[in-house]
Amino acid sequence: MKQTDEEIIQLFKLRDERAFELLVKTYGGLINSIVSKHMYNLLSYQDECVNDILLAIWDYIECYDGTKNSFKNWIAILAKYKSLNYVKKYKKLNEEIELDKAYLVTEDEHLNRLLQHDTRKGLEAILGELKEKDRQLFTEIYFNDKSVEEVCRQTGKSKNYIYNRLSRGRKKLKTLWERGVSSDETQRI
């Protein structure tokens, strides 16, 4: 055993805080490299883990047996297992956070689908107030994204006829929308 190791152990046993300075000076690089190796994706928790390792050395120095392995190996093993415990702890926490996020995203997607469904039903209801020909015309142009030229070719009607039907239909829909008129009252318009 090195002279420095004996001094560090003795200072820890005497509960002298200078032991931390000497330990960090001698084995700080080893502890940091072990922690960063195992906690590469948990950068924000590495310092906390190093502090816990130093505290564990302080608390368990009486358990160190120089006949079983070197002080350096004992520190390395302690650092390794503390790091792995942190990884397990924060992996679970991250999984819970990810599940919460996934649940929120699922709720948002469900709400969006409901809103789209309600909006579509509302549009279909108000389009139901138009004559069958006008309803088909609006569906082709506004829902199926067909051009006026395509609809003219399909129906054999002129552009002016299509534009007039669309204009009259929009006016009627605007009036119905502003008044919130139901299908019973549409008959009077």
Automatic annotation (TrEMBL):
SUPFAM superfamilies in alphabetical order: Sigma2 domain of RNA polymerase sigma factors, Sigma3 and sigma4 domains of RNA polymerase sigma factors
A single GO molecular function term of this UniProt record: DNA binding
InterPro entries documented for this protein: RNA_pol_sigma-70-like (IPR039425), RNA_pol_sigma-70_dom (IPR014284), RNA_pol_sigma70_r2 (IPR007627), RNA_pol_sigma70_r4_t2 (IPR013249), RNA_pol_sigma_r2 (IPR013325), RNA_pol_sigma_r3/r4-like (IPR013324), WH-like_DNA-bd_sf (IPR036388)
Record Pfam families: Sigma70_r2 (PF04542), Sigma70_r4_2 (PF08281)
Record keywords: DNA-binding, Sigma factor, Transcription, Transcription regulation
KW Transcription regulation (keyword) present: yes
Signal peptide location: none
GO biological process, one term: DNA-templated transcription initiation
Family to which the UniProt record says this protein belongs: Belongs to the sigma-70 factor family. ECF subfamily.
Record protein name field: Sigma-70 family RNA polymerase sigma factor
Source organism: Zhenhengia yiwuensis
Record lineage: Bacteria, Bacillati, Bacillota, Clostridia, Lachnospirales
